[in-house]
Amino acid sequence: MDFTPKQRVRAALKAPSSDLQRLCEENTTQVLDLLYVARRSSELGAPLKQAVWSLLEKNMRVLCAASSLGWDAKKKHAEMFHRFSRFILVFQGPEPLAENLVAFSMFRFENEEEYCVLYCYELQVNEEMRGMGIGRCLMNVLECIGSEWRMQKLMLTVLKANKNAVKFYATVGFQIDVSSPTNFGYKEDYEILSRVLEEEDFDFEEAPPNTNH
Ligand SMILES: CC(C)(COP(=O)(O)OP(=O)(O)OC[C@H]1O[C@@H](n2cnc3c(N)ncnc32)[C@H](O)[C@@H]1OP(=O)(O)O)[C@@H](O)C(=O)NCCC(=O)NCCS
């Protein structure tokens, strides 16, 4: 039996962090003494939330404030720590302590139009740790998680002015998504990118009551 995109998202939302943690461990290499940890928003303590927020603010505040997205700290904070937000946190050292946080990704399982997707809201690596493969590794983990819960795409939004991120996403295999404003002739300052996880023609309409005819 197959499942509709809505059913898949409902199932993924229930997945315990321990299941995501297993995929982190199977799909990361033990280099640079890095620890990858999967948590739900509700499983982050106050110090970790603060460390996540500080890294995000340091990397993104100025860029977002200058864009159409803007920087509304209250709204952004609520989005970040929404109950459906999930995190892959990267620590340098053996302990998942706030002071050891060097990178993270925040994502959610969602329905986007007719699709079920793993939407990557944030990918943040602290400046001193960039260019070491952490961003690629995080995207790889997200891909494995998305595939495991049978999401159809891995999606994200990137500001065109964020040239480094645009190059990074192209390098790790993202393309402009069909839903991106560019495809409708709009000149927005952001692009929606995606990577297909499951190639399938979906037709989930209810079968007619009598399928013998
Ligand atoms: C974008 C970002 C996440 C990339 O993470 P990273 O850990 O530095 O990237 P990696 O080291 O894993 O690089 C992976 C590949 O992308 C390429 N790449 C990364 N940054 C690049 C850049 N600025 N220009 C060109 N290529 C780049 C690398 O060369 C590498 O290619 P290779 O594996 O073939 O050698 C990181 O720079 C970052 O956190 N930036 C600030 C926050 C941000 O803009 N986040 C994205 C918001 S949408």
Structure description:
Belongs to the acetyltransferase family. NAA40 subfamily. One of its GO terms (molecular function) is histone H2A acetyltransferase activity. Keywords: Acyltransferase, Cytoplasm, Nucleus, Transferase. The longest helix is centred in the first third of the chain and has 20 residues, at 46-65. This protein has one domain: Gcn5-related N-acetyltransferase (GNAT) (Aminopeptidase), CATH 3.40.630. Mean pLDDT is 92; it is low at 204-213. Helices cover 34% and strands 25% of the residues. A seven-stranded mixed β-sheet has the order 1-2-3-4-5-7-6, sandwiched between helices. It has six helices and seven strands. It is globular and about 45 Å long. With 213 residues, it is an alpha+beta fold. Helix 5 (134-148) links the parallel strand 4 (115-125) and strand 5.
Heterogens: coenzyme A
Overall shape: it is globular
Kindly state the number of beta strands: 7
Q: How far apart are the first and last residues' alpha carbons, in Å? A: 21 Å
User: Which CATH class?
Assistant: Alpha Beta
Summed up, the helix count is 6
Mean pLDDT: 92
Overall tally of structural domains = 1
Annotated CATH topology: Aminopeptidase
Task: Outline the low-pLDDT stretches.
Answer: 204-213
* Helix/strand class: alpha+beta
Query: Roughly how much helix do the residues carry, as a percent range?
Result: 25-40%
